[in-house]
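Checklist before submission:
- one chain only
- standard amino acids only
- sequence pasted in full

Submission:
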Amino acid sequence: MGKTITQKIFEEHLVDTPYPNAYVLRLDRVFCHEITTPIAINDLAERGKDAVFDNTKIKAVIDHVTPAKDSKTAEQGKILREWAKRHQIKDFFDIGANGVCHAVFPEKGFVRPGYTVIMGDSHTCTHGAFGAFAAGVGTTDLEVGILKGVCSFREPKSIKFVLNGTLRPGVYAKDVILYLISKIGVNGATNCVMEFTGPVIDSFGMEERMTLCNMAVEAGGTSGMCRPDEKTVDYLWPFIKDEFQSKEAALAEYSRWASDADAVYEKTYTYDLSALEPVCTFGFKPDQVKKVSDMAGTKVDQVYIGSCTNGRISDLRIAAEVLKGRRLAEGVRGIVSPATPAVYRQALHEGIIDTFMEAGFCVTNPTCGACLGMSNGVLASGEVCASTTNRNFNGRMGKGGTVHLMSPATAAATAVAGTITNSPLFQ
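Returned file contents:
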C-alpha cells in the first residue's frame, strides 16, 4: 500500500511509539515568538531545565506586538530576547529585523521539503506549502521541543483535495481556501492533514500555496500540505544552491516527498474551481462564506491588508493594482502592514507604498498586532473590518468588532467603495 507525504515524513522522523496512536518525531525546526514562548521559557527555567536541544534549529522572532505597546508586552519581548542571547540563538529577529513569523521564516529559507516543524502558534500549518509537516502546538509540547527536539503526534491521517480547472481573473488563493472551508466546515479536517493537489495548485506560486495552507487550521486541520515541485525548488534555490549540483538534482531529491499514487486517504474531495467567484466571510466562523456579490453594500469602517495569510509582496501588488489612482472612501480607515522588512523594501522599490499612501492608507511596520486585536488596528465595539487576515471570530480584532475575511483585491476595492464589493480585476 502506498503512503502519503505525511506518512513518509513520520516514518523518516520516528523516534518512538510509546503507546498506540502516539508517534514521537524528531524535529528539524522549532519556531518561537514572544507571545507563547516566554511561558515555556519561564517554566523550563523554574524546573531547572533552561537549555535548548540545538540552537541552530531554533528560530525566534518578536512579531505579535512590535514595537511593544505596554509594559507587559515589553516584558514578553525581554524574556525572549534574553533567552535567545543566553543560548546564542543566531536566528533571532528583533525590532527592525523582525517580520510576521510565518512569512519571515520561509523567506529566510528555514523550511524545506520533508521537514518537521512546530511552533506555539496555530498558523504554523502555513509551512506545509513546502511539503513539510508543520503544526501548531501547546506550551508543554513546545517546552519538550525546545529542550529535547522531539514532539508527539497522533497517527497521521490525510484528506486529499483535488482542485481542478483554471481560476477566473480576480480570483485568488484566499478565495479558494475560504470556499473549501465553507464546503467542509470548521471541523471538517479535524486531526487530519489537508493535502492540496491538482491543476490549480500546480498553477500557484509558493506565496499562494502558503496562503492556502495557512488557513488549514480554520477547517480543524493539523496542517496543510503541498507536494514539492519546480516552484518549490526555485523559491528555495538561493538557500540550497550549495547543497545540490543543479535545480534538477534538488527536484529529484525533494520529489520523494510526494504521496504515492495508491496512498490511502481518510477522504478525497474533488472540485472544479473554474466558475469560482471571489468570496468573503460573514458572521463569526471561517466557514460562514458568501460570494462577494451577495455581500455587496455591506458597510465597513476599516480595511486591513497584511498578516501571515496575505501580507506578502504578491498580495501588496494585487491590492496596489486596484488602488492605483483611487482613494479611500470617506470615513474608512485603511491600514497595510507588509509582512516582513524585505517585503516592505520591495514594496518601496516598486512604488507600492506610495500607492497605498496616496490612497490614504496608514502603512505600518511588519506586525501581527491587528490580526488578533492586540495593536496597530484594533476595532471599537460595533465597528466592521474588511480584512485579509485568517480569523473572523467574535471580537477577534477588538471586543464587539466584526471581521469579514477576503482577498487583497476585494479588500482594496472595498476600501475605495466603503462597502464590500468585487474588485475590477474580477472578470
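Reviewer check: The chain has a mean pLDDT of 97.
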